[in-house]
Amino acid sequence: MYDIIIVGAGPAGLTSALYALRANKKVLVLEAKSYGGQILNANKIENYPGIASISGFDFANNLYNQVTKLGGIIKYETVNRVEADKTVITNKDTYQAKAVILATGSENRKLQIENEQKFIGKGISYCATCDGHFYKNKIVAVNGGGNTALEDALYLADIAKKVYLIHRRDEFRAEDAYREELEAKNNVEFILNSTIVSLKGEENLTSIIVNDKDGKEQELVVDGLFIAIGQEPKNEIFKNVVDINEHGYIESDDGVHTKTSGIYVAGDTRIKMLRQLTTAVSDGSIAATMAIKEMAK
Ligand code: NAP
Which of 12, 95, 158, 255 is deepest in the core (most CB within 10 A)? Predict the structure, then answer.
């Protein structure tokens, strides 16, 4: 019997674990992939108060070490179901807790065009900081207009020979500073008002076909394509215990409480105004604190 089971070992989940462990609770963190979550993809974090600059990888490792040094247990299992009585069923085992915190984050959104799956790892990547070094002096494209895409383009501009930044509108969602930095690079070309319509190649990706909003088509010869078009939560399996909106995010009345007593939500996977590292760790600390308080009642 655990006090708290946390589903997801990203910043929200690990912060919940940190708070619960420091309150002397018996904690289990269940993670399907690797600890760190989406922050692993951040090349540099420069908007976390008190830390001028840190890589996402180092941030995740520091947090992981902080949790495991306190005796936190992380098991790499996929959660398939959570019951209202706080039974958690994974692909390997069944666990029982007094409270459950869902901190499942979200997954990379796919373009959903032909051959996308086929070229993953053969020219297509969703993580510039993980795979960028494979494209030294090569030609790459980045798709997306958010902070991730522009950060990826900046990161790749220092590695690759040429970077195309393809975005479906002519305005970026990303902070202006990124656009200005990119405009100052001489190996970055913006391809705006454009969408990728097809991917070409035999074994590996060799070119992409891009359509602009007037229907004009162009072929870009590329060695790599980094897709950074946002995230999608995967919460269908929790529908028996939480309400989710039309985009798949979990509803919470005041931030961390779900409709089921003793089941909490934290981080990017919930409906919220701002999905950032700061708000993820904020949720994680509040969810754990609420769980601890309410299980004592
Ligand atoms: P995002 O902000 O949701 O941006 C996604 C981008 O992809 C948007 O420009 C969107 O276009 C585009 N897009 C969505 N679906 C598309 C499709 N099917 N085809 C083509 N383009 C598509 O996602 P994100 O950049 O991954 O960032 C997620 C969150 O993390 C944000 O809150 C972001 O600020 C934060 N973040 C922060 C940092 C940092 O502070 N250092 C770094 C990375 C991420 P439209 O603009 O036209 O909708």
Answer: 12
